[in-house]
């Protein structure tokens, strides 16, 4: 019957969604859920009245998800550190900070860039395999500003005005939770090419 067909199609659709969610859960948290236990628990919940308090269940759910997210952050940090260390070794880059390796590729005798400097910067990003990363980055920055990603600020301060450098960091360090929006995994290595020039200080108008 039509109702039977619709119920069957809904069942197939929900089954596919559950399978995809199980795979994503394993990928995100490195935890494999027992499908049999999950389905038996779901059937039990649907076939009988629940005695559990909804507020208690919600608190327990958030507690578990907090643990899972902490585990995921730990795994992401470890993977990012390992990937970054390997890429830096392959590229022969020196360690500059916790999440940054690099070298000056074009040197000048300009002034050392420091916190508080207004800088005209040209920054290009790519993956470790050379594929370009399309991400909005400002051309004019203030070194040390709170909205400037830490690896970018550290890279700038390792340069003198007019110099160009090549740097490696992780997607997690430079983009944080926005990594997935740019098509990156948190542990992906990001290669930055940075050319920076300290902008001339604006003259204060003289009062008559």
Mean pLDDT: 83
Strand order of the largest sheet: 1-2-5-6-3-4
Helix coverage percent = 40-55%
E-strand count:
6
How many alpha or pi helices? 5
Radius of gyration: 25 Å
Tell me what the structure shows.
This protein has 208 residues and is α+β, with helices and mostly antiparallel strands. It contains 5 helices and 6 strands; from the N terminus they run H-H-H-E-E-E-E-H-E-H-E. The chain has helices spanning 2-29, 35-47, 54-91, 150-157, 171-175, and strands spanning 94-97, 100-106, 118-127, 140-142, 164-170, 189-198. The protein has a 6-stranded antiparallel beta sheet with strand order 1-2-5-6-3-4. Strand 1 (94-97) and strand 2 form a beta hairpin. The longest helix has 38 residues, at 54-91. The protein is elongated and about 80 Å long. It starts with a helix and ends in a 10-residue tail after the last strand. 22% of the residues are buried.
At a glance:
The chain has 208 residues and is an alpha+beta fold.
Q: Characteristics of this structure?
A:
208 residues, alpha+beta, six-stranded antiparallel β-sheet, 20% strand
């Amino acid at each position: 019957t039509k109702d039977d067909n619709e119920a069957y199609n809904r069942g197939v659709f929900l089954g596919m969604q559950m399978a995809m969610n199980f795979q994503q859960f394993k990928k995100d948290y490195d935890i494999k859920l027992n499908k049999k236990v999950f389905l038996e628990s779901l059937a039990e919940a649907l076939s009988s009245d629940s005695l559990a308090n909804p507020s208690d269940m919600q608190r327990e759910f958030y507690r578990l998800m907090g643990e899972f997210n902490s585990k995921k952050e730990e795994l992401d940090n470890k993977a990012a550190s390992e990937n970054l260390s390997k890429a830096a070794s392959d590229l022969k880059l020196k360690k500059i900070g916790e999440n940054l390796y690099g070298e000056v590729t074009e040197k000048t005798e300009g002034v050392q860039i420091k916190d508080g400097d207004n800088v005209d910067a040209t920054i290009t990003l790519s993956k470790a395999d050379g594929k370009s990363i399309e991400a909005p980055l400002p051309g004019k920055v203030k070194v040390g500003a709170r909205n400037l990603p830490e690896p970018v600020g550290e890279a700038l301060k390792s340069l003198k005005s007019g110099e160009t450098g090549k740097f490696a960091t992780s997607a997690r360090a430079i983009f944080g939770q926005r990594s997935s929006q740019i098509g990156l995994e948190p542990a992906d290595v990001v290669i930055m090419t940075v050319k920076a020039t300290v902008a001339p200080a604006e003259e204060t108008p003289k009062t008559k």
